[in-house]
Amino acid sequence: MGPNPLIGVIYHWIGGFASATNFIPFRGIKRWSWEIYWLIQGFAAWIVAPIVLASIFVPHLYSILHEAPSSSIFYALLWGALWGVGGLTFGLAIRYLGIALGYAIALGLCTAFGTLIPPIYDGSIKGILHETSGQIILLGVLVCLIAVAVNGAAGLSKEKEITPEEKAEAGESDFSFGKGIAVAIFAGIMSSFFAFGLKAGAPIGAIAKRELLANNRLDLWQNLPILIVVLWGGFLTNFIWSAILIIKNRSAKQFLGQPGTNPMRATHAVGDTLVDFDPLDASTHDRLATRTLIANYLFAALAGVIWYFQFFFYSMGQTKMGKYDFSSWTLHMASIIIFATLWGLFLKEWRGTSRRTKLLVSAGLFLLIGSTVVVGYGNYLKAAQDGIKIVSTN
Prior knowledge:
By secondary structure, the chain is mainly α. The chain has helices spanning 5-21, 34-57, 61-67, 70-122, 125-129, 132-161, 164-169, 177-191, 193-200, 202-214, 224-249, 290-318, 328-346, 355-393.
């Protein structure tokens, strides 16, 4: 199957929706600390889901991983571990900035680094700069960065306008633009290493493609084994940090029902935050009800599986983008920010802000949509040019 940028863009949009949605189940978790549900969602997202789905779609999966060059495995793991640091701090960015703004700033920066550095590193940027299609794609990256700046301006304006009560109602009682922007910048830089991990794992994908075609399967799934290795690295980093927090905060008993606090809930001390807490029943003071504990596990695991689907569809979309598959990162990140912004609007994260701030948010969203269209058009031109060359040579 050859390149098809239109289908590729659709896959990237589906993946972007999955990524922007994965934080929503966290809001349903009751009286659990961050490190507990983060570790559970990480195990589901970075260990279970990648292995299960790759095993379903890719024949001889373990033989492929065994045959892969050791250097490819090592560097995919290394970049994955560095990306894992970005994933950790990204969660903090969401906590301090909210879903809409946190995604916009952290992933906007991640977009630029993850899109541009790989072709600069391997030298292919020279060819990109000299082709019209490549220049159009780079224009799309620039538009995405402008959108990030616009969203940043909206965040500054928001911090000055909304009250503490409005922050709490939107699930942003910890909102802090200063802390959030610092964490988001670091998270954006570190998260870009995922693109390096995918690049390092390319030999694994080549072996998987050979096996898929030999077994009359779609080469659409060739990147799924790469995800397994990169995400192993990411899980290692997150496991170490979560374990440190669990030991420091003595929160291990929460796995068995001891109550904690969930900083991602819509409110902290009112409403259904204290479901299953009865001040007249001493047994509910220091233990979650069984149904609540089970629900917490399910919500955390659901968040992880939803998160994984972003890269499940990303890997499919990347196979459809042709020569300029590096632009997949821009499309993926921009689509995440778009849907995260829409979730932010739905969850009323911008309630209480002025018309000017809402216009800035709208402008940022419009620019992000525009950036995906521009990048997709650039890939379409390249695919069309390559198709013409193939026809003329025949």
